[in-house]
Amino acid sequence: MNQADVSKLMSQLRISIQAKKRNLKNPKGPEGRLLKLRKTVTALLKHERIELYYNRADEARGYAELLISNAIRYGDRHIATMELADFWLLEKQLVHKLFKVLVPRFENMSVSYTRMYKAPRDYPGMYYKKSVLELRGNPYPSLIPDYSHNRTFLHNILLDEARKDYKREKFAEIANKLKAQSADDTSKGSETKSQTQETT
């Protein structure tokens, strides 16, 4: 099977996943690493926003996207999808949340189902990149401030009016200077005409 055929078998996720070399060592080996990822995906679907280290969040995001994508595509009657949900979700009541709450929320979405933000690191301490991983449409306040609706705040209205008054005053000063210069130019022009007439 060549590379093109393999790409057809992969799920069409809404985020790009590149093959990255991650240093996710675990004392219990690959099973412990996989268990940690299962706990992360379970916590993400349970709390809808979690804060953790960047490498683990980046990898768990792909698995959460795959789980939600397959749940939307195949539904709860598909055996392979139910086995996938049973494997990734350690708390079995979250399977109902996946199909009854998250699938209706995300079924008409054309963007990724998760968001990931870089979080500030702990200082002082060891440098590990941290991040916040969340599901879209969660009930928590947004991490990015919304500046689109603050034009109607009183102080912004007053500042806009003060800015307009300042511009009007400056334009009036420029207009008065131009009038004075044009008046000087016309008076100088008439003086030179009269001087040329006197010399002839």
Automatic annotation (TrEMBL):
<protein>
    <recommendedName>
        <fullName>Large ribosomal subunit protein bL17m</fullName>
    </recommendedName>
</protein>
<keyword id="KW-0689">Ribosomal protein</keyword>
<dbReference type="Pfam" id="PF01196">
    <property type="entry name" value="Ribosomal_L17"/>
</dbReference>
<dbReference type="InterPro" id="IPR000456">
    <property type="entry name" value="Ribosomal_bL17"/>
</dbReference>
<dbReference type="GO" id="GO:0006412">
    <property type="term" value="P:translation"/>
</dbReference>
<comment type="similarity">
    <text>Belongs to the bacterial ribosomal protein bL17 family.</text>
</comment>
<dbReference type="GO" id="GO:0005762">
    <property type="term" value="C:mitochondrial large ribosomal subunit"/>
</dbReference>
<feature type="region of interest" description="Disordered">
    <location>
        <begin position="180"/>
        <end position="200"/>
    </location>
</feature>
<keyword id="KW-0687">Ribonucleoprotein</keyword>
<dbReference type="InterPro" id="IPR036373">
    <property type="entry name" value="Ribosomal_bL17_sf"/>
</dbReference>
<dbReference type="GO" id="GO:0003735">
    <property type="term" value="F:structural constituent of ribosome"/>
</dbReference>
